[in-house]
Amino acid sequence: MTHTNLLTVSDLTVHRGAAKILDRVNLSIAKGETLALVGESGAGKSTIATALMQLLDGAEVEGRAELQEAGDLLSLPARQMVKLRGRRLSMIFQDAGAALNPAYTVGRQLTTTLRRNLGLTRSAAHAKAIELFTSVGINDAEARLSAFPHQLSGGMQQRVMVAIALACNPDLLLADEPTSALDVTIQAQIIRLILSLTRERGASCIFVLHDLALASQSCDRIVVLYAGQVVESGPARDVLTHHRHPYTRQLESCVVEIGRHDLVAPEGAVPPHDQMPKGCRFATRCPRALDRCAVEAPPLTPANPARTGALDHVFACWNPE
Amino acid sequence: MNALPEPKAQTAPTPGAAVFELIEVEKTFQIRPPGRRFTRETVGLKALDGVRLRVDKGTSLALVGESGSGKSTLLRVLLGLDAPTGGRALYHGRPIREARAIGRDFARDVAMVYQDARGSLDPRMTIEALIAEPLRHFNIVPKDQIKSRVAELLNRVGLPTDAARRYPAGLSGGQVRRVAIARALASEPSVLVADEAVSGLDVSTQAQLLTLLRRLQKDMGLTLVFITHDLGVASYLCEEIAIMYLGRIVETGPTDAVLNAPAHPYAAALRAAAPRFFEPMPDPLPGEIPSPLDLPKGCRFSTRCPAAQPDCQTRDPQLGRFGPARAVACFHPLASPET
Ligand SMILES: Nc1ncnc2c1ncn2[C@@H]1O[C@H](COP(=O)(O)OP(=O)(O)OP(=O)(O)O)[C@@H](O)[C@H]1O
Ligand SMILES: Nc1ncnc2c1ncn2[C@@H]1O[C@H](COP(=O)(O)OP(=O)(O)O)[C@@H](O)[C@H]1O
Ligand code: SF4
Ligand code: SF4
Ligand SMILES: [Mg+2]
Ligand SMILES: [Mg+2]
């Protein structure tokens, strides 16, 4: 039932020169749902998010990304995309300090967004800014509006980013590792904040996360990426507790939970782009590899033949667990 | 001796064999008052405030706490890079700064792995030259054996021999950290001190480094002091844990015991904030760590403590015995001490 999906990405492929950074990525997100993109560094998680925002530089983008009532995000003219950013979809980055403009107060950055996107007057924007700061848990909102980014802690900067991103009630929020630069205590605050605000507004959220345990706590569905391809995706519980792809198991086995004393580290690393195997890209590291794996790429297959919707559990492997 | 020394069998630490002992250590930085750039006036910022800590030979200790709690400052005191402004910081019973000043033995025995491994390596030097440097500096092996010793060290940290000819820029983040570890091990230290040595890496690279560090610690009988903000990492790698808040150690003891039943409310809050598979996200600790320039009255955690009582704002709890192996600085600990 794709028509109920807020966003449907099909065959998103991104090249940088000869390197295929993303290879036919398919994913969907339902209205009000939270989705986690997980995978090792370089897997292409940020590339997906930036491509959806049309903020990718120096890359060739193919495929479609259909946002409900807006059309294909990948091919929309820049003029129209500017109008969508902030209003229909917005993005939060890992390093809030770098994403904020150091030359302006955080209040000015927020009211500029409000005035441009909602056409508010100066005083209405100011009032709305105070309201937003309060809603993201900034005490003494009025005074904090006149702070410059460097005068705020990393956690406060990220709260400001959340306020700016949600200022115009977008229905899709892209959050690229919004907390990996923060302490766990502050991480918990920010994730809870993003979840409660998006839930309140019925918005959907795509998180890029490194931590699978955190993904299991905060997201409805999980998409596992390896070397630019989706290798497994589906409801969080299915993917993490009934995973079929050997790479999902490998990722999980590396999570160092408290009280864990028996860690077995995987061998090797993701191959460089010019040495990518022709068949399954995981073949060079896979403990279950068969002869055909090196030559023939496995297609995404439903984990349960009776459930073949765009949001259901799928994996790409010739010799699944 | 030609080959890398055989790993010493791990012996139980002899009681009393403290490598480091910190007694009421204080470190106050004199800084300009915030927001007043053009004044000559200074105020004291207490980065460490009454730290008591003992690190026994052959043990592994994790230092955890939020950013700004004083972990890096404590490490600089242990390394003798900063002199405490109060209290005593001892290495085998002698003041650390004195031990460091006397000769090369301290620098040879206590090795450091920095968080920014890439930044700590000269980009113009090959990996071989980088690892050979401490071998030469400390006269570890005769000149003609340097090459083979470098190869052995690379092997020990799981790098291919041909990495010797490469430059740091040609290595991945995980490989660069391995080089930093090989370099630290070159002087045959008995103590390894590391500041966030595995953070910011992929889980798989992190797992590879953690298993490596654990094997090295066990095989070589190293004493390990490991700063991390990840309780999972602390619990995997370190037998002992010390939890810091605003310049003070608020709880310490065997890692498993402390994390299974934290006694200090701050330790409990850190424990609860650590992500756990499919557990509902707990209510986060409110607020942020206060400025050390403006310490809360009484207990320094009282402004955020869910267990605070009226007496917490009037008295400052000191780190005191909590059962046989633990210590906690709280008037109303959450767990009861095991006897
Ligand atoms: N500006 C760029 N120029 C060239 N290559 C790039 C650029 N940005 C990304 N890449 C390459 O694209 C691939 C995917 O990168 P991407 O940043 O999307 O990964 P990621 O999954 O977000 O990783 P991380 O977990 O490290 O953030 C990598 O191989 C990366 O080296
Ligand atoms: N050289 C310095 N000068 C002034 N203040 C410092 C200096 N080094 C650390 N501090 C302050 O001391 C406190 C503890 O810092 P630090 O030891 O770096 O903590 P952590 O490593 O736990 O994040 C912080 O408030 C920090 O700003
Ligand atoms: S297709 Fe083959 S190599 Fe790829 S994950 Fe499955 S078993 Fe492993
Ligand atoms: S002394 Fe009081 S305020 Fe401090 S940690 Fe214990 S209960 Fe909390
Ligand atoms: Mg990224
Ligand atoms: Mg530090």
Query: Radius of gyration of chain A, Cα only, in angstroms?
Result: 20 Å
Give the N-terminus to C-terminus distance of chain A in angstroms. 28 Å
Counting DSSP H or I runs of 4 or more residues, the number of helices of chain B is: 10
SS strand fraction of chain A: 15-25%
Number of strands of chain A: 12
- Superfamily (CATH H level) name of the largest domain in chain A: P-loop containing nucleotide triphosphate hydrolases
Task: Describe the sheet with the most strands of chain B.
Answer: 8 strands, mixed
CATH architecture of the largest domain in chain A: 3-Layer(aba) Sandwich
Basic shape of chain B: globular
Distance between the ends of chain B = 48 Å
Shape of chain A: globular
The overall pLDDT of chain B, averaged over residues, is 90
Overall tally of domains of chain A: 2
**In order across it, which strands form the biggest sheet of chain A?**
6-7-8-3-9-10-12-11
The count of strands of chain B amounts to 12
Ions and ligands:
adenosine-5'-triphosphate, adenosine-5'-diphosphate, iron/sulfur cluster, magnesium ion
Strand content of chain B: 15-25%
Q: Looking at CATH, which topology of the largest domain in chain A would you report?
A: Rossmann fold
Structural class per helix/strand content of chain B?
Answer: alpha/beta
| Oligomeric state of shown chains | heterodimer
The largest β sheet of chain A comes out as: 8 strands, mixed
Describe the structure.
The complex is a heterodimer of chains A (321) and B (339). By secondary structure, chain A is an alpha/beta fold. Chain A folds into two domains: 2-88 and 170-315, 3-Layer(aba) Sandwich (Rossmann fold), CATH 3.40.50; 98-169, no CATH class. In chain A, 32% of the residues lie in helices and 22% in strands. Chain A contains eleven helices and twelve strands. In chain A, the strands form two sheets. Chain A has an eight-stranded mixed sheet, sandwiched between helices. Chain A is globular, with a radius of gyration of 20 Å. In chain B, the strands form two sheets. In chain B, strands 6-7-8-3-9-10-12-11 form an eight-stranded mixed sheet, with helices on both faces. In chain B, strands 2-1-4-5 form a four-stranded antiparallel sheet. In chain B, helix 4 (127-137) crosses helix 5, helix 4 runs parallel beside helix 6 (173-186) and helix 5 (146-156) packs across helix 6 (173-186). The A-B interface holds A 40-41, 153-156, 180, 183-189, 191-192, 195, 210-214, 216-218, 237, 240, 250-251, 253-261, 263-266, 269 and B 66-67, 172-174, 200-208, 210-212, 229-233, 235-236, 256, 259-260, 269-271, 273-282, 284-285, 288. Residues 29, 31, 45, 47, 65, 67-73, 292 of chain B line the site of adenosine-5'-diphosphate. Adenosine-5'-triphosphate binds next to helix 1 of chain A.
